[in-house]
Amino acid sequence: MSDARSTRMEKLREYYVEKNLNGEDLTREEILKLFELPLPVLGSIADEIRREKCGDLVTFVADRNINYTNVCISRCKFCAFYARKKEDEYVLSYEEILDKIEEAERFGVTQILLQGGMNPNLGIEWFEELFRLIKSNFPDIQLHALSPPEIYFLAKKEGMSVEEVLKRLIEAGMDSLPGGGAEVLSDRVRKIVSPNKVDSDGWIEVMRTAHKLGIRSSATMMFGHVENNEDIAEHLIRVRDLQSETKGFTAFICWTFQPERTELYEKGIVTTPTSAARYLQVLSIARIVLHNFRNIQASWLTQDFDVASLALFFGANDFGGIMLEENVVRATGKDFRPARVEEIVSAVKAVGRPVAQRTTLYDVIRVF
Questions:
Q1: 21 domain-assigned
Q2: pLDDT, tens only, 36-50
Q3: How many domains does the chain have?
Q4: Sheet holding 364-367, edge to edge
Q5: 330 partner at 20 to 30 Å CA-CA among 20, 21, 45, 197?
């Protein structure tokens, strides 16, 4: 690299770091310029911001993902999980769900992520009774339940407002809201990959309402399908702006689309997973843009441990969860097994970073 180019890159690095640490919004044009920077430069910007905001400690959560049903009328083109045949449909019984949580507690799990599909046969009373049962039997479990599309669907089905649905579910025991169903918050993209699901405004409105009711949530993005850089920029701007308004997001999590066994794959629209380099690029840009997010999570589930460990030097300060159970990504055919606590601790320590177990809300439980 020439001296002039090196000096220019250093000035850009300083500019973006300063903007983030001062809490200043990047313009759409500034965000798009980030995609033109070399990956090592992006990584150095994101890593400096991470170090200043979070220090070196890497956290993770002990969790289990329970998918209560695979019946879903949305039938998103990126999804391999929903039942395509009547004989493959299921709805877990309350007893089956409680058994899964009991087993999870024996493994030290503190968070249950409860998500499924938009099942027209399940009304709000079904969820209220389930949540009460969970909380009466497992009062210490954090019930991280139902994505914005599920909440929005319930509201439409019951002829209720989103606020009414959320209030009833909170009363029944819901503790926090996962950020699933965001995919990319660009209606251009959503009309292609999930035309039957809530639009981007609806997703934002569910989150806004939840935050105003005192419910914290994560924000997510699944990319690597039909989106472009402009769509990613739009997504980041929308979650950043809502965070400035409500301060209700605990973390940002991005992961890459796994194409096999999906309609996008079968129609030849997307046939290969996104590269690790693209993942690290988008992760870094998210850290740089989202000045009002403290926590950025790596995705070992889609990237495997080696890339997830590398992500700790591209803006991530969190390693996600052990995922005692996961079904949605596994449905694409990707190899999956839960991560042992010792594996995460070893992977983080191997790159020279301290590590701790946390709660859903990022309180540290145990330092290793």
A1: no
A2: 999 999 999 999 999
A3: 1
A4: 63-67, 111-115, 142-145, 176-177, 216-223, 249-256, 295-297, 318-321, 58-61, 355-358, 364-367
A5: 197
